[in-house]
Amino acid sequence: MLHTTKRPDSPVSIIGAGIAGAWQALLFAQAGHAVTLHERSDAGMTDSTSHWAGGMLAPYCEAEVAEPIISRLGLRSLDIWRRELPDTPFNGSLVVAHPRERNDFERFARMTEGHRRLDAAGLAELEPSLEGRFRDALFFPTEGHVEPRRVLPKLHERIKAAGGTIKFDSDVTAQDLQSLDGIVIDCRGLSAREEQPGLRGVKGEMILIETDEVQLSRPVRLIHPRWPLYVIPREQNMFMLGATSIEAEDTGVSVRSALELLGAAYAVHPAFGEARIVEFGSGLRPAYPDNLPRIGIRGETIAVNGLYRHGFLIAPALAELTLAYVQRGQIDNEVMQCA
What we know:
The protein has 339 residues and is of the alpha/beta class. Helices cover 29% and strands 24% of the residues. It has 9 helices and 17 strands. It has an 8-stranded mixed β-sheet. Strands 8-2-1-9-16-15-17 form a 7-stranded mixed β-sheet, covered by helices on one side. A hairpin with a 6-residue loop joins strand 11 (220-222) and strand 12 (229-233). The longest helix is centred in the last third of the chain and has 18 residues, at 311-328. The protein is globular.
């Protein structure tokens, strides 16, 4: 569907330099727009939800619980990640389970596509550290992962190289910028709740551990009825443990979550029991009641929000859709709402 757009070459002000805003800024700057990216925190981005994200690029695995629109946006985003950041690790991802969770493992296999089964020998060949740990696995070879705290600065540098300007410590709202010439794209996440009352925060907790006794080349998901876990390899012998989605807006990691995450990691490999805990943390993911992303269009202001737990997976595709609307008036009816 096409919609009449007034100024396809407008200057663009973007609020929020997390993963959603960074991709908007990069694609608009590359398309020739004069881009200014505002971020209320400093360049460290420690207050950003993206700082606490897992960074998994796993559209096939997410299909087990997510709506089809997430898979569609995620698959498109993989192509954009490859195009813009070709050093992004696309080593695939693994799903494993112990025998007592066999039914849940088979259900996961039925609910997802894009995988092939590995027997114990195939799993050991792919991840030697898991030899003898599981009798089989699901391997999703085209999926990838990024380390948010390393990839965000790369995106910011790409934005500046494309001619964009980034203003840190710039705490502005869409209303503050509406008097300026051009388009405003609001990517503030939960901070935009006063203007988007349907938003809520969903807490995602993580633990960062360090050990040189386990080596993994790709994320590993452990199927478990109470505490499904993913273990994501980082640089310098680090691993991120995560998977909680808690309907709460407090910060920090609860004792219960810490015990479950650490216990699940030990179930993946006992050597994680000797790992050093480096960091606990949590972020509040912005979500609408249906847990689906939304691009809201009201005149010259565009709000991109509700990425929930799929920020790194779908942000590039959402930016592409926003750019297509501004430049060609193209509307994606599954994602966009025009006031």
